[in-house]
Amino acid sequence: MKNLLFTIGLxxxxxxxAMAQQSPSDEPLFQEILTMDSLxxxxxxxxxxxxxxxxxxxxxxxxxxxxGLTGYxxxxxxxxxxxxxxxxxxxxxxxxxxEVYPVPGYGAIQSASHRFCHLENGAMDCGTFKFxxxxxxxxxxxxxxxxxxxxx
Length: 152
Prior knowledge:
152 residues; alpha+beta; 6-stranded mixed beta sheet; globular
């Protein structure tokens, strides 16, 4: 009986280890969130405030380690300030850093690093930062409800 329990325990352990080593990019949820990230930051890079507003949930909370907490309206106002600004930053996801975790009955948690660059004094100024996005899957599709941006 001990050998059977030991064998079952090993099988469970190695199954879990194999699942942990699978590429999350093969998971449907990972692909859905990667698509939403792409839509969000294509809009950001194109200074399309309306498209970003469609992705943000009306109850958005954005926590930033330098500027504090802002909501939906304030974020759209700040993004509007970037429109037609030739020095507006552009964002690139560091895809290899991205992880996605399901939140049962709600949506998903996305964590990763991204790089922002903007022109300053004739030269590109870039920085890499960390973020966490909380996505809510609603009837009308995915909405971004919480943003945590840190390590600036």
